[in-house]
């Protein structure tokens, strides 16, 4: 049985495989996929971008990437007034922004999401991290809270996106996961085997 390993990746090189994972995990239409591919390829060229992938038998089954927040970036400019309204605007500075985090549904619930985000943020020397997540009680929100992320703004609306988002922030470093694989949330995932933290 193959182990799942977590490794740094070249985001541009793995953009298509990453979007296949995101489409399976998050749900993307073919049109959204094409737009996202261009965005990821552009993000891959930005200064300070870091990306990690979870691989099983050479296949990407999860990924996360992010970069130091830049107030000039689109995402930062959208969330800025919402954070300012709550007195949280200072979180936009010296913060590592987690842009995407997705695990293929067949590999969820075995600790990969936690390992990916802690590895990703652990690679940054910045003192804090910010991200946005759909403003619902999802596994993602539970994961982020368990790592110390708290809500900085809620009901944030991004242009052309119908669902409201929450913006969350945590101080770094994040608590590191237990190196022994956690008990699978989904018992039928025992086939996936353990992952090897870097
Ligand atoms: C969010 C996501 C990346 C988590 O990845 P994962 O590998 O399944 O998560 P892990 O196994 O590492 O679990 C980490 C924590 O997530 C939360 N979590 C995971 N699955 C959950 C579930 N089904 N219900 C509630 N909480 C859950 C728990 O807090 C869990 O910690 P615990 O196991 O100590 O209780 C994954 O569910 C996913 O890809 N979701 C769809 C895409 C998405 O929403 N991405 C985030 C965009 S902001």
Radius of gyration: 16 Å
Query: How many domains comprise the coordinates?
Result: 1
CATH-defined superfamily: Gcn5-related N-acetyltransferase (GNAT)
- What is the correct CATH architecture? 3-Layer(aba) Sandwich
The level 1 CATH classification is Alpha Beta
Distance between the termini: 19 Å
Q: Write down the secondary-structure element order.
A: EHHEEHEHEHEEE
Number of helices, where a helix is a run of at least 4 consecutive DSSP H or I residues = 5
Low-confidence spans: pLDDT under 50, at least 5 residues?
Answer: 187-198
CATH topology tier name? Aminopeptidase
Helicity, as a percent range: 25-40%
Bound molecules: coenzyme A
- Strand order in the largest sheet: 6-7-5-4-3-2-1-8
The whole-number mean of residue pLDDT values reads 91
Number of strands: 8
